[in-house]
Design a protein that fits this description.
single chain; 326 residues; alpha/beta; eight-stranded mixed β-sheet; four-stranded mixed β-sheet; 14 strands; binds N,N,N-trimethyl-histidine
Length: 326
């Protein structure tokens, strides 16, 4: 399994790059109250490996549950997509998930993964070209939260099908999610979107998924600070920071924070910052959805909800959403 690499997050660590987007966003996060930074910065190469390890954890149900659902619904999805489909994946994500779809589809014509990381794209593209000789694998380097330019549909080609698995949509606020869906709807005009969304459930199950007993999620969260040490010449003392993740039911989201264990000073890009004991840096939101709530969000963005597939325990959902016709 590969990381979702939500947006940029270049894997190459070139030490103190005060001019990088990471540097700018980290300095801004430390200057703002409450302090918060985008979860996209989790995914350098160490972070991507930690995310892969999270997906294997017994407590982290989303990945294996979604793979189970996709295995079950792939035939129906292939029917809905029709022949010679052109698949647009938002993020060059899991090769296993896209293979489940490609294997079920009739003569899939083209696969276009959209990702900011060119390296990530090149790796998945090479593997798929080898295994699907008839498939036109066409990686697109770009930020899929913005409008991206895709090649024009092929003559005689089938429908354009978007694929956004993993509940990565849960990293967006509801407003951002609607905006993303509006942009995706334009790209997919006349086609559809296959979207994975984690469901609201027993908070104890959610809590365990983000507080695993092996401490991998804690290491994933703390890697943000380790990455700042590697790339921004920062001096975060990792043992002085606590991983703190909890479910916030009013906003239906998991929040992840890094909490200062004591009063301390940190230097980032040559600038000093004070943390009080208990002060936090908010590192991620992971929204959970009801099926009706997700469908309502999609409708707000102009999609028409189609079939939904779930596992027997209603842990996770996969939605077929018809894109606007024009
Ligand atoms: C990749 C955003 C779907 O929110 O569950 C896993 C990231 N964070 N454990 C999620 C994550 C902590 C994951 N997403």
């Amino acid at each position: 399994m590969m990381s979702p690499s939500l947006v940029p997050g270049s894997a190459d660590a070139a030490a103190p790059r005060a001019g990088s987007e990471f540097a700018a966003d980290m300095l801004k996060a430390l200057d703002t109250r409450p302090r918060s930074i985008s979860p996209k910065y989790f995914y350098d190469s160490a972070g991507s490996q930690l995310f892969d390890a999270i997906c294997e954890l017994p407590e982290y149900y989303p990945t294996r549950t979604e793979i189970g659902i996709l295995t079950q619904c792939a035939g129906e999805v292939a029917q809905l997509a029709g022949p010679r489909a052109e698949i647009v994946e938002f993020g060059a994500g899991s090769l296993l998930k896209i293979r489940l779809l490609l294997d079920a589809m009739k003569e899939p014509a083209r696969y276009m993964p959209v990702d900011i990381s060119g390296d990530h794209l090149a790796g998945s593209a090479a593997a798929l070209r080898r295994d699907y000789p008839g498939l036109d694998v066409h990686p697109v380097v770009g930020d899929y939260t913005q409008r991206v330019l895709l090649p024009v549909p092929r003559a005689g080609g089938g429908r354009r099908i978007g694929f956004f698995p993993g509940s990565t949509i849960g990293n967006f606020t509801p407003r951002e999610a609607v905006h993303f869906l509006e942009v995706a709807g334009q790209v997919l005009r006349g086609g559809a979107l296959l979207l994975g969304a984690d469901l609201v459930k027993d908070p104890a199950v959610l809590h365990a998924a983000y507080n695993d007993s092996a401490g991998v999620t804690a290491a994933f969260n703390l890697n943000l600070l380790a990455r700042a040490n590697r790339e921004l010449g920062a001096d975060f003392a990792l043992d002085q920071w606590a991983h703190y993740a909890f479910y916030e039911p009013r906003q239906q989201r998991i929040e992840m924070h890094l909490v200062s264990r004591r009063a301390q000073q940190v230097t980032v890009c040559g600038q000093r910052f004070d943390f009080a004991e208990g002060e936090a840096l908010h590192t991620e939101n992971s929204y959970k959805f009801t099926i009706e709530g997700l469908r309502a969000l999609a409708m707000e963005a102009g999609f028409r909800p189609g079939p939904v597939w779930c596992d027997a325990r209603q842990l996770f959902s996969v939605h077929w959403l018809y894109a606007p016709e024009s």
